Amino acid sequence: MRKPFIGGNWKMNTSRASGSDLARAVSDGVNSIRAAVDVAIFPPFPYLMTIRQILRERNSAVKLGAQDCYFEPDGAFTGEVSLAMLKDIGVDVVLAGHSERRHVLGESDELINKKVKATLEAGLECILCCGEKLEQRVSNLTDTVNERQIRAGLAGVPGEYLSRLTIAYEPVWAIGTGKVATPEDAQTAQQRIRAVLAQLYGQEAADRIRIQYGGSLKASNARDIFKQPDVDGGLIGGASLKSDEFVAICRAAAESVPA
Ligand code: 13P
Description:
Layout: E1 5-9, H1 16-30, E2 38-42, H2 48-57, E3 63-66, H3 83-88, E4 93-96, H4 99-103, H5 109-121, E5 125-130, H6 134-138, H7 142-153, E6 165-169, H8 183-201, H9 203-208, E7 210-214, H10 219-226, E8 233-236, H11 243-255
Parallel strand pairs: 1-2, 1-8, 2-3, 3-4, 4-5, 5-6, 6-7, 7-8
Helix pairs in contact: 1-2, 1-11, 7-8, 10-11
This protein binds 1,3-dihydroxyacetonephosphate.
């Protein structure tokens, strides 16, 4: 049985004050369901330490996530942030391969793979994102794109690291657009992703890896998507900026697991 996992990706939003308020409200709002759902929030880099402190003061089970990292341990990489730095300030989990980093910032599968490996080698958790663009979907390339991004992202990642790995399927056309995948479409894509994981690591290992869905999730549509057998929670953008909405999504995930 996989415990659902909800991530709140704040992207380049909030201020120190509003992010602090949001972290407090989320932490308090999900405290009573901590046994049923894992929750992580991904604030912008400048607020990580402030929010680490807020979560620590509350003895919160909410994990602290970073939206990105660089794979080199140190050196002349202006503007980049190493995994040692993220560990040093108490980050638990790091995103890799988010569609905005792939398609807005131009990250390649090769770079993403280096980040995934470095994150897992550092002992941190990693969420590897994948997902097709609209033109790929209409050309029936959804599974092909996901398979390529998963195989490339996990190249050289040993099976012993998998307990710290989550996959997020985020169809690019559904991100920030209000167009959510149907529960059936999410299930079909994610079942296929799990089959790729099984080819890479064996069925038993693949059955233990959580696969989140992401793309225009809201409290009103989350429940039906979380009911799907290969959907193990979600990665939330816009709706993670409203604490009531985000907590309601976490509740829907907690309730998606049969008693
Ligand atoms: P939205 O929930 O705003 O569509 O964003 C999804 C996402 O990109 C989460 O990483």
